[in-house]
Every structure is written in C-alpha cells, then in structure tokens.
Design brief:
The chain is mainly alpha-helical and about 170 residues long. The protein is about 75% helix and about 0% strand.
Length: about 170
C-alpha cells in the first residue's frame, strides 16, 4: 500500500471514529494524561493495521477490535509498572470532573472485568448483540445475559449514590 493512500485512510478513520476510540481510552485509563497516551497508542495501532484491513467487517468493528485489544494490552502493562498508591495520587491530582454523572459511569465501567467493560462500551455505541458476540468471541445469548446483569449492577450502584439515582 502506498504511503499516501494509507495516510488518507488513516485521516478518514480517525476523523470519523475519534470519539469511539477516545471512549475506549477513557474507560481503560484513569487520568487525562493516561487517556491521551492510550489514545495515541490506539492511533498508532490503527495506522499499523491499515494494510491488513480486508473489508471482511465494518471499519467500526475493525477499529473497535484494535482499540479494545490495545487498551487491554496497555492496561496490563500499566498494572505491571504501577506501584502501591501511585494510582490514587494520580486520581487525586485530576482536575474536578466536568460532568460528574458521566465520570461516575466511566468509573463504574472501569471496575468491571474486561469482557463486561467491553460490552458496556459496545452497548453505548449501539452495536447489535450479534456484532458484540462476534467481536468478543462469545454467544449472542451470553451477551444478552451479561448486559442484563451489567445494567442491574449499574442501577444498584446508582441507588447507593442518592445524587446519581436513575
């Protein structure tokens, strides 16, 4: 693939799907700096993957897979290098959240296991259960059960926080 064609595809994909990629970065990284680093890493992986895209799935599906896999790898590497208390110090150093409710939701999503966290992000982006199942390698019925449990969990958590009640 020619460099100019790859550059054009990359620009088009990033312009069209930056919100989706940033949403994944936000769910896996706690601080603004980490989110920026992770978004940059995801972008790099998107660039590298362009020559391998075969149009066998939608671009959005392809990008989601790249972003999720990159975020999972990044999170694993971050956990290896984190020291006790460093994460809490970085969170305390954050600027006051712009939208407390959305930040609460992302904090709760961030506490979920990797599959459930991925399902939440896919659900927020209106993917079908079939697409979710294909992306994550689980059955559609398993997707439905997990989403039902996640919703129940989030509702229960919101009821514990009176100012977040749904």
């Amino acid at each position: 693939m020619k460099d100019s064609k790859q550059r054009n595809i990359f620009k088009q994909w990033i312009d069209s799907h930056a919100g989706l990629l940033f949403k994944i970065a936000r769910a896996y990284a706690l601080t603004a700096d980490d989110r920026d680093d992770l978004f940059q890493e995801i972008s790099l992986q998107v660039w590298r993957s362009i020559p391998h895209f075969r149009n066998e799935s939608a671009v959005t599906t392809w990008l989601y897979r790249i972003a999720l896999n990159t975020a999972l790898r990044w999170k694993s590497n971050e956990q290896k290098h984190a020291t006790q208390g460093l994460g809490e110090m970085r969170v305390l150093a954050e600027i006051k959240p712009q939208n407390e409710r959305i930040d609460w939701l992302y904090d709760e999503i961030g506490q979920l296991n990797e599959i459930d966290r991925s399902l939440c992000l896919l659900l927020l982006d209106d993917f079908s259960y079939k697409d979710m199942a294909d992306m994550l390698g689980i059955s559609e019925s398993n997707v439905a059960v997990k989403i039902h449990r996640i919703k129940k969990y989030l509702i229960d958590q919101s009821k514990k926080m009176s100012h977040y009640e749904i």
